[in-house]
Structures are given as structure tokens and as C-alpha cells.
Automatic annotation (TrEMBL), chain A:
Gene3D superfamilies: Dihydropteroate synthase-like (3.20.20.20)
PANTHER family named among the record's database cross-references: ACETYL-COA DECARBONYLASE_SYNTHASE COMPLEX SUBUNIT DELTA, PTHR36214
Name of the molecule in the record: Acetyl-CoA decarbonylase/synthase complex subunit delta
Residues covered by the CO dehydrogenase/acetyl-CoA synthase delta subunit TIM barrel domain: 17-264
Source species: Candidatus Brocadia carolinensis
UniProtKB/TrEMBL annotation, chain B:
NCBIfam families, per the entry: PRK07535.1
A GO cellular component annotation in the UniProt record: cytosol
UniProt GO BP: methylation; pteridine-containing compound metabolic process
Domain Pterin-binding: 1-246
Family, per entry: Belongs to the vitamin-B12 dependent methionine synthase family.
SUPFAM superfamilies: Dihydropteroate synthetase-like
One of the record's GO molecular function terms: methionine synthase activity
Pfam families: Pterin_bind
Keywords: Methyltransferase, Transferase
Domain of life where this protein originates: Bacteria
Protein name: Pterin-binding domain-containing protein
Length: 319, 261
């Protein structure tokens, strides 16, 4: 008996976006990264082209992170006070495809750094590395609306990925990214309907749909990974069935979320039966990332070099 | 919903005049307005008064293509007129329509395949239009068989079971729902289910209301295409809302905006 072919046929494609601009495209990047392009669900390439490989963006903070456990600070101990050197280390030693600059320090409660100081930081990173940049605000609407436009102008033409905009705060950053040629991250916390809504609102401002990346907020292993997984899976299915307002690539914030959990943070003495943190923490981060990869993710934000290496190896093997 | 905008038709005075005087203004305006209203296809019909239907069809298709990129439905049952439209086509094309006689289907499917066009097939032949579900489904089966025989993609086939005006035969509209349902299960993928919506309520006092309610009920049974008045905003909104209720698209607060993009 002939075995029936049960492969699904998909009519849609995830938008392809190239981040970063080289000299001939008006930027100064030496490398660009293209994401998206999937015509099938992840790891089912017999159903269609799986698109571009997922990429890893390593987190760099504009201020030394206060709540990181030693396991996480150790690999960056010499550079935590210098975001440019930190970024360089991530790219040159740890193989980061992109750098995600998290502007923690601009938050009014966490340093309240000015736009001028932050522009300097951004410029120093652009000078130090050749990979594309993700620039992530502090998610305090007023402060982001004050600082992000100035950063956007300072990085004009570099085609950075800037974020995040939400249903309630999207106009300022959308307008400035449109003017300065950047891509945009639309955030809807674990809500697929709002995800679509933000995309529609942004597109109503004539922002091109093929310059948007979606972010659903991320749950780490044991802390809501399954919710993130299920939303991202539904998003990917919507894209593949041709919903133009949902055909954007997806970004996850794995590093920050995985390292907030007690399972990765607790030191070796606290819960001895869990094993050494230097193994356990990176493993928690890597498992969160690899789990979410199956749902359809294009950029994974990560922190620990060991976890990054594991996940990159896994991507290489599966694609 | 695959909405086929019906306004570029020589039966309407403005289009008839445009064809006669070779003045593209009215046609361009209708192409833009219907596209903005969210039309998936723009139906193009030279009407009955055109002196040279072949030349008129070429001209109409060219004017529309010069104005918008919206796909075009070439509306004629005359093979040479359809062929004329196809010969100048640059946009995606739907042929509207072929009758269900085997020789007609052979002719139309061959040319549709050649131009990578879609095709509306009517459940009728030269002997007339069946009045019941069974005979219409026999036609539907034959149309699908023909498509398979021609290796013509079923996703490009639109079956039109011919919706009668409500004031001509009131029993007919309700039969359609059963037919949509059955056509949906005829093959995988199934052919599309299409009706000519305006004809249904022509000459009635509640023309728009009748069309709107039939369309929403039809969608709930699997109707997915209609030649219709896309400039009737209430009708388009109702169709999009019915599709959201049937879980065919992802809900968002601005779903009516998304539906027109």
C-alpha cells in the first residue's frame, strides 16, 4: 500500500528582513544578517523552504547589570563597565550574530541616563563591532520616547532593529524608525490578537510590514515557556496561511528571562542537589532557547557564552 | 473573502459611455475606488452595447492595468472576448466564466492553464440551469473531474452554483447553503464557492440588506467568493465580520482595516 503524503501545503511566507547596512547601503556595518523567509513550520523542511537560520543576538547592557549571578558576570568580568568592549568580546570570542544593546540605564529608576550619554554608547558600539545592532529601550514609555528618537537619528542608515513599540505607545518610535531607515520590534505580551493589532497600527503609519519583527515577551523554562511557545506557534501558522499582518519574523528574550529564575540563579550551596550553577544556569538558558526554536523564532536574545555555543550548535545541526 | 468588484461593467451607464468615447477617466476612478474598498479582483465586462466587444475588452483590461495592480476578472462567456482580455493581461486573472458543458470546460480550462488564470465554472450547460441540489452537485463533480483531467489546479477553480433572484424563486437561496457545504468536501483542496450576489436582490426594495444577510449566512456555510458591490461598505464589513466569527482570520481590534489591505 502506498503511504499517503501528509505534508501540509502552506500558502504564506514569513517576511525576510535584512538587518544592518554596509557602506554601499548607507551604513557602516561589515556584516548584515537576513532573517525570516520560512515557507514551512520549523524543522519540517519537507513541507517547504525553512527560510533563514535563526540567529543569536547577545545582550550588552549600557550599565553593569546589578542582579546577575557570578556565573553570568564571570565571562564578561573585564568588560561589564564598557559596552563597546563587551560587544566586541561577544562577537569576537563568543560568536554573536548580532548585538542587542539593552538600555537599562536610561530607566528613571535605574540610572536615568541621558540621551546624549546613550548616543555616545551606541556610537562606541557601532565603532567597535561590524555586526548589526538591536537597540532595546527601557520600556518606560516617556523615557523611551525621549531617548530612542535621538539614538535612531545618531544611528541613521545603519538599519538597526529598534524596540519596542506597543499598542499604547507606538507613534514616536515608529515615525523615527521610518525616517531613519531602521526596523522595528512590535510588542504584545502573550496576546496574539494584540500582536496583530500593533502591526496594523504601525502599518497605518505607512511603516513597511517587511521591516517589523514581533515580540510576545518570553517565558523561561518553568516560567511560562509553554505560553510563549503556543503564541509563537500560532503566529507562525498565521504567517504560513497567508495573514499579511502576522507574517513578521519573531524575536525572543531568552537570556534575561532564563537568568531570572531561581533554578539558574541559586548558588551551589543553596540547593546542592541541583548541581553546580556554572553548568545548571547555561543549561537552563540553552533549553529555553532550543525549546522555543521549535515554535518558529528568528532571533534569540541570549546571555551566557556557553548557552550561546550550545544553541548555535543545535541550530547548525538541525538546519 | 474573495470579493470581485462588479462596477466596471458596460451595463452601467458611466462605463458604457467610457467604452464608447474611449475615455478612461470613469474606469480608472472605479478601479481605484474598488481597490481601496478592498476588492480582491476587479470584474471587467464590456456589456452588451459595445460595438466591438473584443477591442472593448482589450481596452478595458489595459486601462485597469495602467491604473492598479489589482487582479482582474475577465467577465464574458464569449471565448474570443475572454481570449482578447487574456492576450493583454499583465495582472493576475480570473476568467468569469465557463458553462459546465464538457467541450466548454475543455476550451476554458486549456486557456486558463495556459495563462495561469483562475476560472469560474457555472453549474449549468446548454440545456439550462438545474433547480435542485443534486443536479448542481453533479455539475460540480464533473467540473472537478475535468480539472483533474487537465491537471488544472483545483485552487484555481471557482464553482458558481447560480444564485437565483429572491423575487424569482424564493426556494432557491436556501439550497445554496447545502451546496457550499458539499463543494467544500468534494476535493482536497476544494474548489472555491462563488455567487453573483447583486443579481440575488436585484429589483427588490431591500437590495442591500438582502445581499448582506445572504453573504454572511453563505460564509458560515463555506461561500468564499462573490461578484459583488465592494463599494457597499456595510456589505464588506459584514463579510469580514462573518469571517472573523467563523475563525477564518485572526481577530484584532482593527480587523476591518486589516481586511482591506
Amino acid at each position: 500500500m502506498e503511504i499517503p503524503n501528509v505534508a501540509d501545503k502552506w500558502s504564506g511566507t514569513v517576511n525576510e528582513i535584512t538587518l544592518g547596512a554596509t557602506k554601499d547601503k548607507g551604513g557602516t556595518r561589515t556584516k548584515t544578517i537576513t532573517i525570516g523567509g520560512a515557507k514551512s513550520i520549523p524543522f519540517m523542511d519537507f513541507e517547504g523552504n525553512p527560510g533563514q537560520k535563526p540567529v543569536v543576538a547577545m545582550d550588552v547592557y549600557d550599565v553593569p547589570p546589578e542582579d546577575w549571578p557570578e556565573t553570568l558576570t564571570k565571562p564578561f568580568a573585564d568588560v561589564l563597565n564598557d559596552p563597546a568592549q563587551w560587544a566586541k568580546k561577544c562577537v569576537e570570542q563568543y560568536g554573536a550574530d548580532l548585538i542587542c544593546l539593552k538600555l537599562e540605564g536610561i530607566h528613571p529608576d535605574k540610572g536615568n541616563k541621558t540621551a546624549e550619554e546613550t548616543v555616545k554608547t551606541v556610537k562606541s558600539i557601532l565603532a567597535a563591532v561590524g555586526v548589526p545592532l538591536i537597540i532595546w529601550g527601557c520600556e518606560h514609555d516617556e523615557k523611551d520616547n525621549e531617548v530612542m528618537p535621538k539614538i535612531s537619528q545618531a544611528a541613521r542608515g545603519e538599519c538597526c532593529l529598534m524596540g519596542v513599540v506597543t499598542q499604547d505607545n507606538y507613534k514616536t518610535l515608529t515615525a523615527t524608525c521610518l525616517a531613519d531607515g531602521h526596523a522595528l520590534i512590535t510588542l504584545a505580551p502573550v496576546d496574539i490578537n494584540i500582536a496583530k493589532q500593533v502591526n496594523i497600527l504601525v502599518s497605518e503609519m505607512d511603516f513597511p510590514l517587511n521591516r517589523i519583527v514581533m515580540f510576545q515577551s518570553t517565558g523561561a523554562l518553568g516560567y511560562g515557556l509553554e505560553y510563549t511557545y503556543s503564541i509563537q506557534e500560532r503566529e507562525r501558522l498565521a504567517a504560513l496561511t497567508g495573514d499579511k499582518m502576522m507574517s513578521m519574523p519573531v524575536i525572543c528574550d531568552v537570556g534575561h528571562e532564563a537568568w531570572r529564575t531561581k533554578e539558574s540563579k541559586s548558588d551551589d550551596m543553596e540547593v546542592p542537589q541541583w548541581g553546580a550553577r556554572d553548568e545548571r544556569g547555561p543549561m537552563w538558558e540553552a533549553i529555553t532557547a532550543v525549546g522555543l526554536l521549535q515554535s518558529g523564532v528568528d532571533i534569540i536574545r541570549m546571555s551566557h557564552p556557553k548557552a550561546v555555543a550550545t544553541v548555535k550548535k543545535c541550530i547548525e545541526r538541525l538546519y | 473573502m474573495i470579493s470581485i468588484g462588479e462596477r466596471i461593467n458596460g451595463m452601467f451607464k458611466d462605463v458604457r459611455e467610457a467604452i464608447k468615447n474611449k475615455d478612461p477617466k470613469a474606469v480608472r476612478e472605479l478601479a481605484i475606488k474598488q481597490t481601496e474598498a478592498g476588492a480582491s479582483f476587479l470584474d471587467v465586462n464590456v456589456g452588451t452595447a459595445a460595438a466591438d466587444p473584443v477591442a472593448a475588452m482589450k481596452w478595458l483590461v489595459e486601462v485597469v492595468q495602467d491604473t492598479v495592480k489589482t487582479p482582474i476578472a475577465i467577465d464574458s462567456q464569449k471565448f474570443d472576448v475572454v481570449k482578447a482580455g487574456l492576450s493583454v493581461a499583465k495582472n493576475e486573472i480570473l476568467i468569469n466564466s465557463s458553462k459546465g458543458d464538457p467541450e466548454e470546460l475543455d476550451k476554458f480550462m486549456t486557456i486558463a492553464k495556459e495563462y495561469n488564470a483562475s476560472l469560474i465554472c457555472l453549474t449549468m450547460d446548454k440545456t439550462g440551469i438545474p433547480q435542485d441540489v443534486e443536479r448542481r452537485m453533479e455539475f460540480a463533480m464533473k467540473i472537478v473531474e475535468k480539472a483533474v483531467e487537465h491537471e488544472y489546479e483545483l485552487s484555481k477553480v471557482y464553482i458558481d452554483p447560480i444564485l437565483f433572484p429572491i423575487n424569482v424563486d424564493q426556494k432557491q437561496p436556501a439550497l445554496m447553503f447545502d451546496i457550499f457545504n458539499q463543494i467544500k468536501m468534494i476535493s482536497d483542496p476544494p474548489p472555491h464557492r462563488n455567487v453573483g450576489l447583486s443579481n440575488f436582490s436585484q429589483g427588490t426594495k431591500e437590495k442591500r440588506l438582502l445581499a448582506r444577510i445572504f453573504l454572511t449566512m453563505g460564509i458560515s456555510y463555506g461561500l468564499d467568493a462573490a461578484v459583488m458591490d465592494v463599494l457597499d461598505k456595510d456589505l464588506m464589513d459584514a463579510a469580514m465580520t462573518a469571517e472573523i466569527i467563523m475563525n477564518q482570520h485572526l481577530y484584532s481590534d482593527s480587523y476591518l482595516t486589516a481586511g482591506r489591505k
